[in-house]
Amino acid sequence: KRRINLHLDNKSNVFFCETSIFGRKAMSEKIQNISYSDIWKIFINSKMKHVESINMSNNILNNLNNKFTFNNNAAIYTILVFGPIVEIVKSDLSKIVETIDGINCELSIWDNKLIIRSIAHDNYELKKTLNYILENIIYDKLPKSWYL
């Protein structure tokens, strides 16, 4: 159970990234019962600007196998970008996301925020894609511990 609240002013920039893996395929992990709650709230000038929430409990096989939720995938990430920096990075990030194939990856931009979401069968392909996006947006190598 986790709650993240970010309080920013209208000149602040934030680049927030989180990955969740519900069983590693390479390790033959299959999660059946879980208690998982993750809620993020982002406030700008004391006004709520965005909320992300994932809540699952007990047997999650219906969530993982349902075509309207995880569709047999077990790894997801979300990238949130807020603030004036959105105008600077949106074109580059749109081009980067368009080149991704092999996993589902989508980008949305509205109301001075940018969100990228990806879902994959396992963490290997997801991590590879995430590293590709991050390297291309920060124009530098990531820390060694981030590589597979």
Offer a few descriptive terms.
4-stranded antiparallel beta sheet, alpha+beta, 3-stranded mixed beta sheet, single chain, 43% strand, 148 residues
Q: What features would you describe in this structure?
A:
This protein is an alpha+beta fold and 148 residues long. Helices cover 24% and strands 43% of the residues. It has three helices and seven strands, in the order ββββαβαββα. The strands form two sheets. It has a four-stranded antiparallel sheet, covered by helices on one side. A three-stranded mixed sheet has the order 1-3-4. The longest helix has 16 residues. The mean pLDDT is 85.
How are the SSEs ordered, and which strands pair?
Blueprint (H helix, E strand, L loop, with lengths): L1 E7 L5 E8 L11 E12 L2 E13 L1 H5 L9 E8 L2 H14 L5 E7 L2 E8 L2 H16 L10
Parallel strand pairs: 1-3
Antiparallel strand pairs: 2-5, 3-4, 5-7, 6-7
Q: How many individual helices?
A: 3
> What would the principal axes of the Cα set say about the shape?
globular
Instruction: Estimate what percentage of residues fall within beta strands.
Output: 35-45%
List the uncertain runs. none
How far do the termini sit from each other?
27 Å
SSE-based structural type: alpha+beta
- Order of SSEs: EEEEHEHEEH
Mean pLDDT, all residues? 85
Main beta sheet, described? 4 strands, antiparallel
Radius of gyration: 16 Å
In which order are the strands of the major sheet placed?
Answer: 2-5-7-6
Helical percentage? 10-25%
Kindly state the number of beta strands: 7
